[in-house]
Each structure stands twice: as C-alpha cells, then as structure tokens.
Amino acid sequence: MTASATRVLVLNSGSSSVKYQLLDMRDSARLAVGLVERIGEETSRLVHTPLTDGGGKRERTGPIADHEAALKAVAEELAHDGLGLDSPELAAIGHRVVHGGLRFSAPTVITDEVMAEIERLVPVAPLHNPANITGIRTAQAMRPDLPQVAVFDTAFHTTMPESAARYAIDVETADAHRIRRYGFHGTSHAFVSRETAKLLGKDPSEVNVIVLHLGNGASASAVRGGKCVDTSMGLTPLEGLVMGTRSGDVDPAVTFHLERVAGMSTDEIDVLLNKKSGLVGLCGDNDMREIRRRIDEGDQRALLAFEIYIHRLKKYIGAYYAVLGRVDAVVFTAGVGENAAPVRAAAVEGLEELGLVVDADLNAVRSDAARLISPGYARVAVAVVPTDEELEIARQTYALVNA
Ligand code: AMP
Question: Range of 331's domain?
Fold first, then answer.
C-alpha cells in the first residue's frame, strides 16, 4: 500500500445482491455508493451514485449473470467517475462477513486459511456466508495485490459471557455442532454504542447502553463499558425480537409440532419462520410505515402486529436493564428505530419507574443526526443514533491495514 492510498471499498455481498461504498478515509467522505440487485436474473439492476462533484445517479438494467459480472459492472461505473479499482489510492477492500464463529473477534486480513475457516462456518450461516465468500473471491481475482479484510457481524458479540452465550442444552451435543448464541448486527451495535457514549460526552468504557437495532432484521444488545454482554440473536439471526419477516423467539417445540402435526418439512418450517413470520406473518405487511397507516385507519390486524412487536421489545429492554443493573442510555437505530417515533414512544411507555421517559416533541423531530429524545431530567438517556455499518467496516478495514 502506498502512503497516498486512503480509499476503502466496502462490499456487502448477499446471495443475489451486492451493496457497495467507496470511502476516502482521510475524512470518512463517501465517494460513491451503489447496489446491484437481482443478480442471476433477467431483470438485474445496478444503481450507482457518485458523490464527487457533478455526479448524478446512474442505473443499468438487464441481466447480470453472477457476482463476478456484478463486480465488473461496479468497477466500470467507478472507473467512469475516475474512481477505478485499479487506482493506487485504493488501500483495501473491506467485506462484511456475517458469521465469524468464535474464532474471529476482530477484523481480519483474508488469507487462504481465513477463507477456509469462513467456509467451515457455512453450516451455521447457510444463507449468508456462501454469498460473502463469493464476493471475496471475486474481489480477490480483480485485485489480488490488495489487502482484503473481513469484518464479521458476530465479532462484537464474542465478549458475551458463557452464561449469556450458551443454550441450556446438552454440552457435548452443543459443542460438537458449535451450537451457541453468536449474535449478529455486531458492526451496528459496536458503532451505535460508541456513538451513544460520544453523544453523552463520555468514553465508551464509562457507559452501559441498551442498543435496539430495529430494521427489517432486528436485534437488541446489552453493552457494558463498550463490551457486549448479551444480545438477542442467537445461533442464527432468527432468535429474539419480532422482525419484518422473522418470528424471533418461539418455543422450539413449535418446530417439531409443525413437523408432526402439520406434516411440514424442515425446509418449509425454515421458510415459515424466517420469511413468512414476524410482522408480515402477523398482518401481511413488514413495512412499519404501512402498518402505522393501517392502524390509523382502524385496522385491527395491523394494531395487534404492532402490539406484539412492542411487547417483545419491552421484554428485552426490561431483561437487559436487569442484566446491566445500571443503564445510562437506551438507543434506537436502523430503519424503524431511526424513523418510527410511535415505536420509540410505545417501547418505553410505562417505564418511568426505570427512569425511561421520551419527550414527545423531541421524539417527533425528524433528523439524520444522533440525538437525545428524553427530557433533561430523565435518569436514563433515550437516544436515536443513525447506524452506519459501511463506515464502521471502512474504519476497521483501514485501521487494520495501517496498523
Ligand atoms: P433497514 O433494514 O434498517 O433498512 O430498515 C428497513 C425498515 O425500516 C423498513 O422495512 C420499514 O419498516 C422501516 N422504515 C423505513 N423508513 C421508515 C419510516 N419513515 N417510518 C417508519 N418505518 C420506516
């Protein structure tokens, strides 16, 4: 890497999509952002937005066969803006990798051995790790000389004590199959808990925070002095809160009941709980804007879905309050957490005894900035902190290659 190499490309490769951002780490400025979706279909689409002077959004539609073709198309778009991947200014490529197991507690330069370990984790992340691996391989083929860094969704949660991470099942069986709670959205929980400390004017080591990452996927975490001590997602991202399409917590016996009584296969139950449950299963919609609109029109199904969503959220706030003992802030982030004021108000309603209060006027403000929504007198801060997983991946990648 040359001294002038200050750019980092962040790649988030899904099974049929690639999200990307190119950042200049001198000032964390975004130079370009984009998305390739429906890879492998006839109707693939690339949306590229250069954020340098004079840039405007560009779109390509038509078949993009695979991740290699997708990344080539991205490279062409970047080159068009004078930001090509062959530039000596590119310092590294940072990859979001969903599952790092217990081995990876920090960002890691990708070697053959690291790749082999990410592959070994495919059985515990069958939907995510294969796509991440494809993205890494493609990027390596394009720039074999460049450091490629894996930033793991699970890493922030590796500080969880065994009491929180272990399921109470037979230890030999659990260990043989690496069954334990890993947690996900770690990059977001790390970023948001740190930014919350900053908002409070404190060092992360001084504060205890409950982070509520409420997007289409949703998870809560309890962070003590900057370290995660519990989180709501488990072996997979299915456990915990009610999500857009995932059930979150259910009695595990539901699965064998469905097998024995409803004659459903394991794969069908997997699809039911991951894709057809949560808000969509309860009321047919997973977009909180639509659910709120329906509630305003008197729709009872939408109202019940909202109430179930809030009930679960409240249970986790209470549980993590007890886990932490002392809480300095409860913070909302991601699509729902950052935008849905009624969710924030309902989640802490009635929790005044715990020191949790939301100021209605502050809560109603729409803003992209990190902000407090609790009144000045509140014992516990309630905050909204926009998450930025790409910036966090870029920061961690850049710090590692400059270490
Ligand atoms: P994410 O996964 O973080 O991108 O969050 C996506 C979800 O955020 C969507 O499914 C919506 O439910 C929710 N969302 C986005 N914008 C709004 C908004 N203005 N009001 C309420 N919910 C929103």
Answer: 202-389
